[in-house]
Predict the structure.
Amino acid sequence: MTRRQCLFPAAVDPVDQAGAGCAPVQAGIVAALGLVLGVALQLQQERLWSAGVCAGLGLLALLGLAALRRWPKAALALALLAGFCAGAGLTGARSLRQAAQVLAPDLEGQSLLVTGRLSSLPQAVAQGQRFEFRIEQAERADGADAGPVRLPDRVQLGWRAYPGQAPVPPLRVGDRWQFVVRLAQPHGLANPHGFDREAWLWEQGIGATGHVRNSRAEVPPRHLGASGWHPVEWLRQRVGERIARQVGDPRSAGVLAALAVGDQGAIERSDWALFRATGIAHLVSISGLHVTLFAWLAAQLVGAWWRRLGGAWPGMLLAVPAPVAAGLGGVALAAAYALLAGWGVPAQRTVAMLALVVGLRLAGRRWPWPAVWLAAMVLVLLADPWSLRQPGFWLSFVAVALLFAGDAGKPARRGDNIQSVPSRGWAAASDLLRVQLRLTLALAPLSLLLFGQVSLVGLLANLLAVPWVTLVVTPLSLAGVLVPVAWDLGAGAVQVLVQVLEALAVWPFATVYRAIPPLPLALAGLAGASLLVLRLPWVARLAGLALLWPVLAWSPSRPAVGEFELLAMDVGQGSAVLLRTAGHTLLYDTGPRYSPQSDAGDLVVVPLLRALGESPDAVIVSHRDSDHAGGATAVRAAFAGARWLSSVPGPVAERCVAGQRWTWDGVDFEVLHPLPEHYGPDGQGRLPSNAMSCVLRVDNGRQSAWLSGDLDAERETRLALARPGLRASVLLAPHHGSRSSSSPVLLNTLRPQTVLVQAGHRNAFGHPAPEVLDRYRARGLRWAATPDCGAITWRSQAPADLHCERAARRRYWHHRGPARVADQALWPDDGDALPESLTQE
């Protein structure tokens, strides 16, 4: 084989002119690709594979590797098979091990006395802190079954101080504690395009979540001293605390802590929104650029120090030359910095690539960039296969691939060594502009797929922020560890950056929100954008434009004229419902307030509406209770042009009054409650908050929906008796299924076929109440609840079908607790899976 016949000529050893080194590198690249595909397949499974299947895949991987030498002509196929089986089998085996760590269902809600140690940075929450806890021993705290129990090794706990209780004491990583806790299996909200909290907990190895009990009836929490475990996390906490003490501005302190020790929780939510809107969020986390710069500086210092030592002991330079010491030292210190910064995916990828490049260079070998790129990906996935699901994984690796591919074959500048300083500066600036323009354009489809937004000011913001953050803010954040005054200078630099970003963020159309496209369309758009920015003939670039255009022109389907659909969001213990017609959108309620710092409007409702490409024409807030109106501020800020109706008086909302009526696209909307006399002269409601709920009926002549907030049974009965001819195909369970609503008179009058319950998982109110479910059963009603179903979609053109988000995106790490539902035609006995009819749109 000649050098020209090699698939990747750059892979050949410089002294291997015969090309004998080509085949192993080709096989390695194909095997790495197979491993990535195997991991990807395993992460799509609804159920875990058995241990036998995982062992069989491992055996196939070994056999494939063994057969490479025997059948060299089939080497690439065998390498692909071996890599695929290895990736799928290893990930499956690790998944089985993690599944064994999930809390047993019979221990949910039990009072347990646990002893263990803090293993993560505590994060501030309302009236307390949240942290990961390594359990050393556990037992039941009370009852006849008191005794040792087996719990997951790692759990996530919240410790809050409620009124009348002592504040939560300072918590330090590594400290041992004993306290009473109540735990539950990992569970999160399930909405279209929403954050998968259960997947994140699974990836972190957390087998349960819960809270510390601190009542007088329980054993009080007891501090048992330091353990000496988790020194890296302990150091991260100490540095973060020193930054907070040194820097008076919390905003600047948060950014410095994020850059120095990777404490992303230190950055305020509003600042994250600003960084995302201007496209520089990657710069305020530990990115590959930061780690690479640190590695280069570390290598220079180690090399200079080694040469100086070599002057005194020449044998050192003979045993380990300075370039070797500099390379190894730079990689080692970069890995230490990445660990101190939280060991995120970009840091892992960068350390892996640095280690590969330095190792190959020291060994006198050259690999093509796809080999280095795939090898780094394999190392990251071997350490954490579930990182394949993280947006940061794809943004990081796709950006690096574009940089590699764009620079491949780039002609070197002639006369660089004789250029003047201004010429070099101009060349560096033009390179930065070219690279940033390439990344901004090529990653736009991926940003749409992952986040549903593209920052149009991102190019300018990055041109300003990349050198500023990389060369000024980050070095100052690290220098402050040794010289604290550097943090004061870094805080000033952060304030300058924020002022510039705030000025850019208010530009018209600074950020464009688009509906998240389907995966195949987004991947085609990514390929098209990549073709546009690579060094290719213009014919190929025009083909890229053809691939990119469908992504820009795509919009999600809507109901036909005369039809409507209802999406009951999964917002926890609260309510938020999206109603859509052929050309209009209405939002009924805005979700609950979770804490003084967060609410469903900001975390769920607004992101979901933007992901679906929706901008509400009208918003109805049924009443003032925070589980229905908690997200109103965030929704109003995001969609200022919507018409607002509410029983709560306000400067921008009209009063909802019985008799209000309008028609959209052949669908009739009517407000049935409250009556005009229910309002006082000052606009305030005369009735209790729940009794003032705005009741909305939607009807197209064939199907109808009834939404009544938290209306109580007395008002339900009066309304039903006043309009005995009304019917409803689908009923949003009043008051989340509380026993104070869903009165027999209302159910007998409306005669719904389907009831949708919005409630929180294991909520303290017991919603939906057993007696309410008995009423549904007695009337043969089918029903679905968001804790078990996730977001629920009902469509007027197919009223017998429901779309449950949990069923549609079921994966093996999702919660599989007993379904609290009744209709056996709709829900199986085991509660572990849903019929296909629920997953069909």
About this structure: The CA atoms of residues 693 and 709 lie 5 Å apart.
